[in-house]
Amino acid sequence: MEALDGNAIAGTLFEYFATEMTTAPGTCAHCGTRSQIAELAVYARAPGAVVRCRHCGSVVIVLVTIRNQLHVDWSAFPMEETSGH
Amino acid sequence: MARAAIPGRLTWQLGRVVELVDETPRCKSLVIELPEWRGHRAGQHVDVRLTAEDGYQAERSYSIASSPGDAQLVLTVERLEDGEVSPYLTDELRPGDELELRGPIGGYFVWEPSQGGPLLLIAGGSGVVPFRAMLRRWTAGERDVPARLLYSSRTLQEVIYRTELERLAEEGAEVNLTLTRQWPADWQGHRGRVDRALLAEVTWPPQQRPLVYVCGPTAFVETVAEALVKAGHEPGRIKTERFGPTGS
What we know:
By secondary structure, chain A is mostly beta strands. Helix content of chain A is about 10%, strand content about 35%.
């Protein structure tokens, strides 16, 4: 399956963080590469999505919906403060 | 009853389809009226949600084809043969029907005149949709930076917005078409896929620091972006948006 990019999960992330997130910069906890969310590789396959660093391929964000509740684990992609939140 | 959207929140709302426009055999534009629309930026998209009678829901993202200044929201949808959402939108939807959507969404793949240029837009297939919005925005502004489109399509019949692209060209946008599979005998445009040679011919040199947007299927976007970086364009001035079927 070909990877999309962070633009594909913009709506879901907006829902979770209550702000636009595709331009939010963060750092891959595995290799230290800094990117904006739109630049990450997204494997969107229901019922969730796996987001990988384009540099090292490690999973940095996981989104999953359980019983209509969206869960986002972004512990491997610490984000800098952005103006939106 | 219309409910007021809370600022900063992304809420689902019902739009009404007022018109359907055949763009190509596989693409239609949906003209939509919305009760609440706080405006958008060229390049943004919306999420469309369909709900089946049994409650099953499917969601997909579609780029906005209309300019921020246009009176109505326009989405252009390409029918994917095994798609869950697009065949309904292109084949079943009728004027007067309601459609659930939320947006505008996205802040990365957007262009506003304040970002400058030269503005270089490179599209594969229906990746041209957000560029219609950007070029409309460009023609509505001061046009103090040049704008150039390179659009790759398999055949001439599959070129979306043909008439509009001619109009945009008359207004000063540079429109370059390349056909990759078939072309008419008298075809004056480019032939073949977007490669290093075509990019060198059509794009501004890296020294002019064009602001580049690339949109299309994943393989197209990655080939083009990689070729641009190899040619010396700054990665930080190349913005990409990949699309493709989602789900299994």
